[in-house]
Amino acid sequence: MTKTLKVGAVIYDPKVTVIWDMIRQFIEDQGHDISIEPVFFDDYRNQVKALMNKEIDIAWNSPLANREAEIRMEGKVKYGLMRDTDRDLHTVLVAKKDSGIQSVEDVRGKKVAFGAIDSPQARLIPIQYLRENGMEFGKDYEEVRYDIGVGLDGDHTGGELDAIKSVEAGENVAGFAIEGNYKAWTADGTVDGNQLEVIGKTNGFDHCIFTAHEGVADEDIEAFNAVLKTMDYSKKRDKEILDLEGLKKWVDGRTTNFTEIRKAVDYMNFFE
Predict the structure, then answer these.
(1) Would residue 84 be called left, alpha or beta, if left means φ above 0 and alpha means ψ between -120 and 50 degrees?
(2) Can you tell me the distance from the alpha carbon of 147 to that of 118, in angstroms, rounded to the nearest whole number?
(3) What residues pair up with 244 in beta bridges, in sequence order?
């Protein structure tokens, strides 16, 4: 008998529904005793509530949403896979060249640009980074926040991009963006890399992960993991799915590299 898991995903972009229908069909075509029913949400807070209430079995969570699930469910969660591209990431602190802002210490007392209020990579982890460099939130610098796509936990890069553009325009002395986005924007001309330079970098962190409630059987999570791992980037159909979801292969989930988001959430009392 086929076991069907309800898998939650947040619609940060219209393509999300397309991706998950393709994943659903891929799993069905493998002929295993596991299938999925995608369940879509407008934001991560509602997705976490659904996981808490066991309305879904597994949530494709941002690092912030995963931490929220851990807190609200008192650690009674299980973990699934993550993308190969979700490991060992960094956020960079960017300033304008020849501005006199050459190190993280130079932003003390000045206006610093961040992404949306709930962005792990463009606000929360950067706030923790500044704290680790001796600057307290609300005291040692002025936060200028670009709240685009609130509820999407930074999956919408608009606020992050606006933060960097504000630095380029001279409105703020420095701003934060995840390193991969910043490199892509300078490469394609979205921002002028000739005007900007990286003056700091956060500790490494991991990003999205599948989170399940404790009632989901280990063997069902293992079956779900196993079928996703059969996706092969060398196969045309699989590559299309993987490219849309932004990875080359699914890898085992880990929680050891969520230290920065956990510290940041605690420091900000984010879910109080």
Answers:
(1) alpha
(2) 9
(3) none
d(CA 252, CA 64): 19
- Among residues 191, 190, 199, 188, which one has the least CA distance to residue 91? 199
Q: How wide is the angle at C-alpha 108 spanned by C-alphas 107 and 112, nearest 5°?
A: 50
Question: If you ran DSSP here, which 8-state letter would residue 17 be given?
Answer: H
Residue with tokens 């299309």: 240
Which stretches does DSSP call E strand in 146-223?
174-178, 196-201, 209-213
Going residue by residue through the chain, which has 272 residues, state the pLDDT in tens, using 9 for 90 and above: 789 999 999 999 999 999 999 999 999 999 889 999 999 999 999 999 999 999 999 999 999 999 999 999 999 999 999 999 999 999 999 999 989 999 999 999 999 999 999 999 999 999 999 999 999 999 999 999 999 999 999 877 779 999 999 999 999 999 999 999 999 999 999 999 999 999 999 999 999 999 999 999 999 999 999 999 999 999 999 999 999 999 999 999 999 999 999 999 999 999 98
> What SS3 string covers 42-75?
CCHHHHHHHHHCCCCCEEEECHHHHHHHHHHCCC
Of 119, 202, 207, 199, which Cα lies nearest the Cα of 163? Answer: 119
Label residues 169-194 b or e (16+ Cβ within 10 Å = b): eeebbbbbbbbebbeebbeeeebebe
